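Project standup — Tuesday

K.O.: blocked on the structure for the chain from last sprint. Re-posting the sequence here as requested.
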Amino acid sequence: MELEDIRREYCKGGLRRKDLLADPVDQFNLWLQQAIDAKLTDPTAMTVATVDETGQPFQRIVLLKDVDQRGFVFYTNLGSRKAQHIEHNAKVSLHFPWHPIERQVHITGVAEKLSAAENMKYFSSRPKGSQLAAIASKQSSRISARGVLEGKFLELKQKFAAGEIPVPSFWGGFRIKPESIEFWQGGEHRLHDRFLFSKQQQAWQIDRLAP
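H.V.: unblocked you, prediction finished:
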């Protein structure tokens, strides 16, 4: 089969303005819970898009770790490529691709670093293996072989075998403060439903977009 022939019809149901909650974060939480209830694989997985100093966009998948009216939270190595991009340009785009339920959510906003207290609270809740990996991996740096990484991990595992693992200074989280949130619901004949919430001072403006 040719790539141009691969397609499917979207028939899970439409989205009407009357179905939307007034606040887009509440609407997002509703859809997220429905994605979880539908037992989607990695429902909290989201694409994070950043831009480097030359204007080159980059994307990667990370996991959403918190969301409230303040914004959407993820954690990373603060020396990573994405963190360096954010240091230069704090404007970020997020995308949740919930294909099995024919939905997408696209978010634009500005990233801000979390406090040391917030970082410590989440880091302490992580499995010990994840804590060690955060220290062992100098994210986005070049390494000669996987064995180098595994050796560092084992070294740290022995070092902290009986003790508490400290939060590394180069690890932390970002909160994306949303400026726009778009909800996309697949529709028959490619007549998809799209609603864009745009932040206007302290209120949200809602617009229907053509598919």
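K.O.: great, moving the ticket to review. The beta strands are 45-51, 57-63, 66-68, 71-77, 91-98, 103-113, 171-185, 193-200, 203-209. Residues 42 and 63 are 8 Å apart (CA to CA).
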